[in-house]
Design a protein that fits this description.
305 residues; four-stranded parallel β-sheet; 12 helices
């Protein structure tokens, strides 16, 4: 049976660790230019409702470097859910391609694609979650800190799709995860409940970033207004006052802490330039590791490993 990569919780803790092992191996082989071409003669369809530099570059480059060809479908090429029924898009794309990646606004559209596609479907991002990013983040943390369990992760900012994926990861690996956010910007309550109900992790919601980051292994942030919410930026800047990740907030951890950001960053808003350029910053390792983590996911779903 085909498998899709829609949520972190679609996979067991052992499978998540396996993804990281595959990513480690494929990264080393790509660096040594010693890869074979497991996707030779195959195509990856990439549907974009939300544009993205990193998602397109990482998937297209990664699939090509493993021997395949990626087909970019822009928001104008496929107006998903508007010009044509989602289930029809899924079935047509499946007739032409071996795998489908979709970066969408509406999470329901992704679920419908997966239900009707006969090929593996990968979630390149929706307004609800961003599981490929979290796999890249986890891979980066493993490289830098040498472990992926019993971590103290503090996310500072909007309780958005990245937070939802961290919460779902907390249902698979033991973490201490805190989302430090303003009062009206908390993550989805049901996702928080599911993470806590799994009984593996400590999950906290805080409205005091300086208290939240104490003893943090990782401080993570994202833009205060994601794509589709840019019109709220002026209002959000007012609400997010005091939630910038800056030198003072990093120092408040009381230990050596790494800084993460899924990019693009708005320097001077959610993060200071000094933190982005500091030795603690691993943001460009994260960006590179998107390709390696996604390659691992594609190889696993295709049965190539």
């Amino acid at each position: 049976m085909k498998r899709d990569f829609l949520h972190i919780t679609d996979f067991s803790s052992d499978e998540i660790r396996e993804f990281l092992e595959i990513a480690t191996d494929i990264k080393a082989r790509l660096k040594a230019r010693a890869t074979e071409a497991p996707f030779s003669g195959q195509t990856l369809a990439m549907i974009f409702a939300k544009p993205s530099a990193r998602t397109r570059i990482s998937f297209e480059t990664g699939f090509f470097r493993l021997g395949g060809h990626a087909v970019y479908l822009s928001p104008q090429d496929i107006e998903i859910g508007k010009r044509e029924a989602v289930k029809d898009v899924a079935r047509v794309v499946s007739r032409y391609n071996d795998m489908l990646m979709a970066r969408l606004f509406d999470h329901a559209h992704l679920l419908e694609l997966a239900r009707h596609a006969s090929i593996p479907v990968i979630n390149g991002l929706t307004d609800y979650n961003h599981p490929c990013q979290i796999m890249a983040d986890l891979f980066t943390i493993k490289e830098r800190l040498g472990r992926i369990s019993d971590l103290r992760i503090v996310y500072v900012g909007d309780g958005n799709n990245v937070v939802h994926s961290w919460l779902r990861l907390a249902a698979r690996l033991p973490l201490h995860f805190t989302c430090a956010c303003p009062q009206n910007y908390q993550p989805d309550a049901e996702t928080v409940r599911l993470a806590r109900a799994a009984g593996l992790s400590v999950v906290e919601i805080s409205h005091d970033p300086f208290s939240a980051v104490r003893k943090a292994d990782v401080i993570y942030t994202d833009v205060w207004a994601s794509m589709g919410k840019k019109h709220e930026l002026k209002e959000r800047i007012r609400h997010f006052e005091g939630f910038q990740v800056n030198t003072a907030l990093m120092a408040a951890t009381g230990k050596d802490t790494i800084f993460m950001h899924c990019l693009p960053a708005q320097r001077g808003l959610e993060v200071s330039d000094s933190v982005m350029e500091s030795p603690a910053s691993v943001v460009f390792d994260q960006a590179e590791n998107r390709m390696h983590a996604q390659n691992a996911i594609m190889l696993k779903l295709a049965g190539k490993v």
